[in-house]
Structure formats: C-alpha cells, structure tokens
Specification:
mainly alpha; spliceosome; mRNA splicing
C-alpha cells in the first residue's frame, strides 16, 4: 500500500503563509486557575490588540400585557379542549410579569434604603469630623494662648530684671561714690611712723 502523507501539517511547508503565526502546542487547562493563566498569556502575546470586554447583558423584561384582548374567556359552555392550554399559558405569563414587577419594586426599595443609609453614614461621619475638628481648634487656641502668656511672662520678668539691674547699678554707683568720699577723709594706712 501507499504510505500515508499528511498535507500541510509540517511547520516549514513551502505552500504555507510567509511570516505566519508560529505553531503553538495545544495546552489543556486542568484547573480554573490554569484556564485564567492561559487566557492572560494569550492576551499578553499582543498587547496592542484591544481586549474583548463583553457588554452587560440586557435584563429580562416580560412582554407587556396586550391593550386589546380578542379572545376573552368567559364562563360560557362550549369552550374547546384547546382553550384550557391557551388560558394556562396566559395565566403563567401574567404571573411571571407580576413576579417581575414585584422584584423590581423590591430592588428599588432596597436601593432607596441603601442610599438613605449611605446619606446617614455621611452625615454621622461629617458630624464626627466636625466635632473632632472643633476639639483640635480649641486645643490649638489653648496652646497659642498658653504660649503667648508664657512669652508675656518671660518678657515681664526680663523687663523687671532689667529695671532691677538698672536700679542695682544705680545703687552700686551711689555706694561707690559714698565709699569714695569715705576713703578720702579717712586714710586706710598711715605712712612714715616708726
């Protein structure tokens, strides 16, 4: 029999695209972490290429109730056997619509409560910060007043010291003058005695 040859599976084939992508080995992710790692590696191979970010899916909305109902079901006799299935389907659809509206209303209530809670938290936080800010300001003012009082006290002491030192100097000068007068009258030693 003829030998089987595989076409176009060799990496250096002559009929391949020039400058094409390299053949990469097939890697099977065994864990979700491996799968995530492989996705990241594929994205990071070409960082210039934009990453696909899927849009958020549209929320399911029930079909609006009909404005005009043609087949009004009454309690008259003679309804066919297929009418019950039509009625059951309409009833199921209406129950779905009412459940959806209830869920939307509950979600809106929760959102409203959440926003009120956030507002209350903001107000409480603002009150706490204002209280602390006032406390800090009071302490600052107290420190400034204490510092000013201390400076004034030291200034007064310095003035008193300078005044007392001037008075002391005057007194010393007066004492020296008095002593100088005393020295002139009474000699401290006598000369020429034998």
């Amino acid at each position: 029999m003829a030998a089987h040859t595989q076409k176009n599976n060799k990496p250096g084939k002559p009929g391949g695209k020039p400058g094409g992508k390299e053949a990469q080995p097939l890697v099977i992710a065994k864990t979700p972490a491996d799968e995530q790692r492989l996705k990241l590696e594929r994205l990071m191979r070409n960082p210039d290429k934009p990453a696909p970010i899927p849009d958020r899916g549209k929320e399911w909305n029930p079909r609006a109730p009909p404005e005009f109902v043609r087949d009004v079901m009454g309690s008259s006799a003679g309804a066919g056997s297929g009418e019950f299935h039509v009625y059951r389907h309409l009833r199921r659809r209406e129950y779905q619509r009412q459940d959806f509206l209830d869920k939307v209303a509950a979600k809106q209530d929760k959102d409203k409560e959440y926003l009120q809670k956030v507002e209350l938290n903001k107000k409480a936080a603002e009150e706490r910060t204002a209280k602390r800010r006032n406390k800090r300001e009071k302490l600052k003012q107290k420190k400034l007043l204490a510092k000013k009082a201390k400076q004034e006290k030291t200034q007064q002491e310095a003035e008193e010291n300078s005044e007392s030192s001037e008075e002391d100097k005057k007194e010393e000068k007066e004492e020296e003058e008095e002593e100088g007068d005393d020295d002139a009258e009474v000699p401290s030693f006598i000369m020429g005695r034998k």
